[in-house]
Amino acid sequence: MLNIEQVAGDGVVTLNLSGRLDTSTSAQLKTELDPIWEAGDRNIILELSDLQYVSSAGLRVFLMSEKKCKANGKFMKLTGVSQTIREIFDIVGFSGLLTIE
Predict the structure, then answer these.
(1) What is the per-residue pLDDT across 9-57, written as a single tens digit (0 to 9) for each?
(2) 67 close to 98: Cβ distance less than 8 angstroms
(3) Cα within 13 Å of Cα(26), Cβ side
(4) How far from 60 is each of 21, 55, 100, CA to CA, in Å?
(5) What pTM, to 2 d.p., does this model score?
(6) Is residue 13 left, alpha or beta, with left meaning phi > 0 and alpha meaning psi from -120 to 50?
(7) CA-to-CA distance for 26 and 40, rounded, in angstroms?
(8) How many CB atoms lie within 10 A of CB 11?
Protein backbone atom coordinates (compact mmCIF):
# COMPACT_ATOMS: atom_id res chain seq x y z
CA MET A 1 0.00 0.00 0.00
CA LEU A 2 1.19 3.49 -0.90
CA ASN A 3 -0.20 6.71 0.53
CA ILE A 4 0.47 9.97 -1.28
CA GLU A 5 -0.23 13.41 0.13
CA GLN A 6 0.22 16.29 -2.29
CA VAL A 7 1.03 19.83 -1.14
CA ALA A 8 1.44 22.57 -3.76
CA GLY A 9 2.73 26.10 -3.47
CA ASP A 10 5.23 28.62 -4.86
CA GLY A 11 6.07 26.69 -8.03
CA VAL A 12 6.78 23.48 -6.10
CA VAL A 13 4.70 20.35 -5.62
CA THR A 14 5.66 18.17 -2.67
CA LEU A 15 4.49 14.58 -2.62
CA ASN A 16 4.76 12.91 0.78
CA LEU A 17 5.03 9.17 0.18
CA SER A 18 4.40 6.56 2.84
CA GLY A 19 4.22 2.78 2.63
CA ARG A 20 5.62 0.67 -0.19
CA LEU A 21 6.46 1.77 -3.72
CA ASP A 22 6.45 -1.43 -5.72
CA THR A 23 5.00 -3.05 -8.84
CA SER A 24 1.44 -2.77 -7.58
CA THR A 25 1.73 0.88 -6.43
CA SER A 26 4.12 2.51 -8.90
CA ALA A 27 1.26 3.25 -11.32
CA GLN A 28 -0.47 5.16 -8.51
CA LEU A 29 2.56 7.44 -8.15
CA LYS A 30 2.85 7.88 -11.93
CA THR A 31 -0.85 8.82 -12.10
CA GLU A 32 -0.26 11.44 -9.40
CA LEU A 33 2.77 12.82 -11.26
CA ASP A 34 1.27 12.82 -14.80
CA PRO A 35 -0.60 16.15 -14.54
CA ILE A 36 2.44 17.80 -12.91
CA TRP A 37 4.69 16.61 -15.75
CA GLU A 38 2.15 17.65 -18.38
CA ALA A 39 1.86 21.17 -16.97
CA GLY A 40 5.66 21.36 -16.86
CA ASP A 41 5.65 24.47 -14.68
CA ARG A 42 6.50 23.11 -11.23
CA ASN A 43 9.47 21.65 -9.43
CA ILE A 44 8.86 18.37 -7.60
CA ILE A 45 9.92 17.33 -4.13
CA LEU A 46 9.36 13.72 -3.14
CA GLU A 47 9.40 13.41 0.65
CA LEU A 48 10.32 9.81 1.49
CA SER A 49 10.63 9.80 5.31
CA ASP A 50 7.76 7.33 5.61
CA LEU A 51 8.57 5.23 2.54
CA GLN A 52 9.43 1.73 3.71
CA TYR A 53 10.36 0.03 0.44
CA VAL A 54 11.02 0.82 -3.21
CA SER A 55 11.24 -1.77 -6.00
CA SER A 56 12.61 -1.48 -9.52
CA ALA A 57 9.17 -0.34 -10.70
CA GLY A 58 9.30 2.54 -8.24
CA LEU A 59 12.85 3.38 -9.27
CA ARG A 60 11.66 3.66 -12.89
CA VAL A 61 9.05 6.25 -11.85
CA PHE A 62 11.73 8.26 -10.01
CA LEU A 63 14.01 8.17 -13.06
CA MET A 64 11.16 9.08 -15.42
CA SER A 65 10.22 12.00 -13.20
CA GLU A 66 13.81 13.26 -13.12
CA LYS A 67 14.00 13.16 -16.92
CA LYS A 68 10.65 14.90 -17.41
CA CYS A 69 11.51 17.63 -14.92
CA LYS A 70 14.86 18.30 -16.63
CA ALA A 71 13.16 18.39 -20.04
CA ASN A 72 10.87 21.12 -18.66
CA GLY A 73 13.76 23.07 -17.12
CA LYS A 74 12.61 22.12 -13.61
CA PHE A 75 14.11 20.06 -10.81
CA MET A 76 13.10 17.06 -8.78
CA LYS A 77 14.64 16.26 -5.42
CA LEU A 78 14.17 13.52 -2.87
CA THR A 79 14.11 14.38 0.82
CA GLY A 80 13.90 12.33 3.99
CA VAL A 81 15.56 9.32 2.37
CA SER A 82 16.11 6.55 4.93
CA GLN A 83 19.36 4.62 5.08
CA THR A 84 17.63 1.53 3.67
CA ILE A 85 16.24 3.39 0.65
CA ARG A 86 19.56 5.23 0.19
CA GLU A 87 21.36 1.88 0.01
CA ILE A 88 19.01 0.79 -2.77
CA PHE A 89 19.80 3.99 -4.71
CA ASP A 90 23.53 3.39 -4.15
CA ILE A 91 23.37 -0.25 -5.30
CA VAL A 92 21.56 0.55 -8.56
CA GLY A 93 23.61 3.68 -9.24
CA PHE A 94 20.78 6.18 -8.85
CA SER A 95 22.53 8.22 -6.15
CA GLY A 96 24.49 9.99 -8.86
CA LEU A 97 21.44 10.50 -11.08
CA LEU A 98 18.94 11.87 -8.55
CA THR A 99 19.17 14.87 -6.25
CA ILE A 100 18.95 13.45 -2.73
CA GLU A 101 18.88 15.71 0.30
Answers:
(1) 889 999 999 999 999 999 999 999 999 999 989 999 999 999 999 999 9
(2) no
(3) 15
(4) 11, 9, 16
(5) 0.93
(6) beta
(7) 21
(8) 9
CATH class entry, domain 2-100: alpha beta
**Quick one: DSSP state of residue 9?**
E
Three-state SS at 24: coil
Query: C-alpha angle 84/20/74, rounded to 5°?
Result: 80
pLDDT number for residue 10: 87
DSSP structure string for 30-99? HHHHHHHHHH---EEEEEEEEEEEE-HHHHHHHHHHHHHHHHTT--EEEES--HHHHHHHHHHT-TTTSE
